[in-house]
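User: Here's a protein and a ligand (zinc ion). What would the complex look like?
Assistant: Let me lay out the input and then the predicted complex.
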Amino acid sequence: MHVMYPREVVDEALRLTFLGLTDEVVAARCGVSAQAVRHWRHGTRRSRRAEEGRTAYCPVCGTGTLDPRAYSYLLGLYLGDGYIGAIRNGVDYLSVFCCDTWPGLIEECAAAISQVFPVGVFRVPRQGCTEVKAASKHWRCVFPQHGRGAKNERRMTLRPWQSEIVDAHPEAFVRGLFHSDGCRVSNRVRKRVGGRWKYYEYPRYLFSNTSQDIVDLLTGALDLLGIPWRSRVEPKPPHRDAVIVSVARRAAVARMDSFVGPKY
Ligand SMILES: [Zn+2]
C-alpha cells in the first residue's frame, strides 16, 4: 500500500535526487522509504498519478496565477542564458547560467524563478558560473520556446499571452535580457579642452545575441519604451554573426539606468 505524500515531500525528494544523492540518503533525509523515492524516480503507474497530483499547479495550464513582472524578467533571462532539459517522467528542469562575477544577479534570478513558479530553486557551481536550477513538469508551458538545438537555429517568437505580458512589463523584460546577454560599459575618453586634458565618461548599454528573433524582441521592447537604439552585425567566424544592439544617447542611457543599471 502506498501512502500519498504531501507535495513538498515529493518535491524535496526529487530535488535531492537531482543533486545526485542516492535513494537511501534521500529517503533518510525526507523521512520516507527508499522504495517511495525509487517510485517517484522511476514513475510506476502509481507514482505517476502521485506526481500528476503534485504538479497540477501551473501558472499557465493549471490553476496558478502568473506574476507578470517576474515572468517578464525571467523570460528575458531565459532567452539569453536559459535552457530547459528533461530529467525523467516528464519532469523538466529550467537552468539559467549566471556568471559568478555578479552574485546579485544570481540571487535575483533565483528569486524570479520562485516568484514565477513555487518550486525549490537550487544553485549548482560550475566553472566560472552558477547554474540556477528548478525542476517542474511545467517549464515547457511556462517557456514554450523550448526545442531542440540552439536558440539561434530556430524561430524565437512569443505566444500571444507572452507578448501581452512583455508589452505590459517591457522594463522587466529589457532588464532580464541585459542581465543575461547585455552589459553597461563606460568608455573613458581623454580630450584636450582649453589647453587642459579632461576625462569624459561615455556610458552605454550593449546587448549581443546571435538570434535575430531575440534581438527583434529586445528592440521591440525598447521601441515601446521610446528608447533609441542602434544595431550592427559583428562577424564571429566560424560562428554565427552576432547582432550588437547599442543604447548610447545620454538621455536613453539615463532612462536605462533607472531600471537596468550595471550588473551587480
Ligand atoms: Zn502547465
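Summary: The chain has three domains: 7-54, 68-155, 176-257.
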